[in-house]
């Protein structure tokens, strides 16, 4: 309801986990750029319920500026069905110290994972070696 105040919405999606619980972010696609800009200006920093909301323009992955620090978080898809946390760690630990990792399944039962390294160099090395 909050976002519909600013213009016609073409699509709206809240990212959810496998149990249907919100992951805390989503996407709103407006019919016009003006509507999107107004929503960003008016809703960014607003408190909705018990959460402070951040609203930003969508930036395509290949256009994002990862800055000097680089990236540390990797998304891994196409994992074999037998992959568990232990196997994931064994596969990615050779590239550097892992801060956190998780193996998940989508609605179709396909496994995917996130691996977050402590150092961007480790993440970059893992991508270069395994991608």
Features:
two-stranded antiparallel sheet, 3 helices, alpha+beta, elongated, 33% strand, 23% helix, 131 residues
Describe this structure in words.
With 131 residues, the chain is α+β, with helices and mostly antiparallel strands. Helix content is 23%, strand content 33%. The chain has helices at 33-43, 85-92, 120-130; strands at residues 9-16, 22-30, 47-48, 51-52, 73-79, 98-105, 111-117. The strands form 3 sheets. A 3-stranded antiparallel beta sheet has the order 5-7-6. Strands 1-2 form a two-stranded antiparallel ribbon. The protein has a two-stranded antiparallel ribbon with strand order 3-4. It is elongated and about 50 Å long. The mean pLDDT is 88.
Give the neighbour order of strands across the main sheet.
5-7-6
- The 3D shape can be described as elongated
Low-confidence stretches: none
Radius of gyration: 18 Å
The total of beta strands comes to 7
SS field, number of helical segments: 3
Query: How far apart, in Å, are the first and last alpha carbons?
Result: 41 Å
The H/E string reads: EEHEEEHEEH
Question: How confident overall, as mean pLDDT?
Answer: 88
Briefly note the structural class of the backbone: alpha+beta
Strand proportion, as a percent range, falls in 25-35%
Largest sheet: 3 strands, antiparallel
What level of helicity do the residues show? 10-25%
């Amino acid at each position: 309801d909050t976002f519909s105040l600013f213009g016609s919405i073409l699509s709206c999606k809240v990212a959810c986990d496998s149990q249907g619980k919100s992951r805390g972010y989503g996407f709103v696609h407006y019919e016009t750029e003006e509507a999107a800009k107004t929503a960003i200006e008016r809703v960014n920093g607003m408190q909705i319920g018990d959460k402070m909301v951040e609203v930003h323009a969508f930036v395509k992955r290949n256009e994002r500026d990862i800055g000097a620090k680089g990236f540390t978080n990797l998304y891994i898809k196409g994992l074999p069905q037998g992959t568990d946390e232990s196997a994931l760690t064994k596969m990615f630990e050779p590239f550097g110290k892992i801060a956190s990792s998780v193996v998940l399944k989508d609605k179709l039962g396909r496994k995917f994972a996130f691996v977050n390294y402590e150092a961007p160099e480790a993440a970059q090395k893992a991508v270069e070696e395994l991608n």
